[in-house]
Q: What sequence folds into this?
């Protein structure tokens, strides 16, 4: 066996290992290039080169080249390990591209695990909802940050204060509020009649906004309450008492997402999510 063949074998194995790390993601739309996974694949390739050469050194005639492969494997391993743990080259957009497949794994395992205990099932369902929300938010942020839009300040809840349990139960931290998934059954009579359109953070998730196809009304769920929304300024915009949701098509629409929903709460947070906008009778 030649050294060229050995190098091609290690290179091919490294590429294959990088691809295999994506096989436990929940959906194709969650596939994003990850620098961290690339460094991990290189790290594993270096280990493979060291181990294989240890077993196969007798098959190669040059002792100097064999030593160079051992040394090179150690150096590549150390460098790639440092890159993984330091995250030295990972910026905001790159960080989110790495986190989306990571979140997707949590969705897949939480949904498909054979869970019998009701407490664990509730925990898993909460993880699914949180991860799907964050995936949609990160897709919107990737697009925004990649265009050079960097925000230095965001809404923050007031500082904690001393009070009673009743005060705590009556207190709402606005920064934690977010439109929740809802079904047609949950929306009930608040759901617009006739043909409706819905925004979903991911294709398989329940919508967070259901609207009449003609834009005359909409409904969303906020803090456990079904909230009817009226048309607002904008083509697909709805609002009620400082709570607003607007959907707009995105220029770079692809198989992952075709629309972006912006959620606003006054006073309070503003967040955007990339997902799908579809209509049905």
A:
């Amino acid at each position: 066996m030649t050294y060229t063949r050995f190098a091609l074998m290690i290179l091919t194995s490294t590429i294959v290992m990088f691809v295999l790390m994506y096989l436990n993601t929940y959906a194709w739309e969650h596939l994003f290039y990850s620098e961290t996974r690339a460094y991990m694949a290189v790290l594993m390739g270096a280990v493979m080169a060291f181990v294989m050469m240890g077993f196969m050194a007798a098959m190669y005639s040059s002792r100097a080249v064999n030593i160079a492969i051992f040394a090179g494997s150690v150096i590549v391993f150390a460098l790639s390990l440092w890159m993984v743990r330091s995250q030295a080259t990972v910026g905001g957009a790159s960080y989110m591209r790495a986190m989306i497949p990571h979140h997707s794994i949590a969705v897949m395992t939480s949904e498909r695990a054979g869970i019998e205990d009701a407490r664990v099932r509730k925990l898993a369902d909460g993880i699914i909802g949180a991860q799907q929300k964050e995936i949609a938010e990160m897709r919107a942020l990737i697009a925004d940050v990649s265009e050079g839009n960097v925000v230095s300040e965001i809404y923050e809840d007031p500082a904690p204060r001393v009070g009673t349990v009743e005060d705590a139960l009556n207190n709402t931290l606005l920064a934690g509020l977010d439109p929740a998934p809802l079904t047609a059954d949950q929306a009930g009579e608040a759901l617009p009649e006739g043909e409706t359109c819905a925004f979903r953070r991911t294709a398989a998730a329940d919508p967070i906004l259901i609207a009449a196809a003609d834009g005359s009304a909409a409904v969303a769920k906020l803090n456990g309450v079904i909230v009817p929304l009226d048309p607002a300024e904008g083509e697909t915009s709805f609002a009620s008492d400082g709570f607003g949701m607007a959907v707009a098509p995105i220029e770079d629409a692809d198989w992952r997402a075709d629309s972006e929903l912006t959620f606003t709460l006054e006073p309070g947070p503003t967040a955007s999510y990339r997902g799908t906008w579809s209509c049905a009778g």
Notes: The longest strand covers residues 270-280. The mean pLDDT is 91. The chain has three domains: 3-90, 93-147, 174-280.
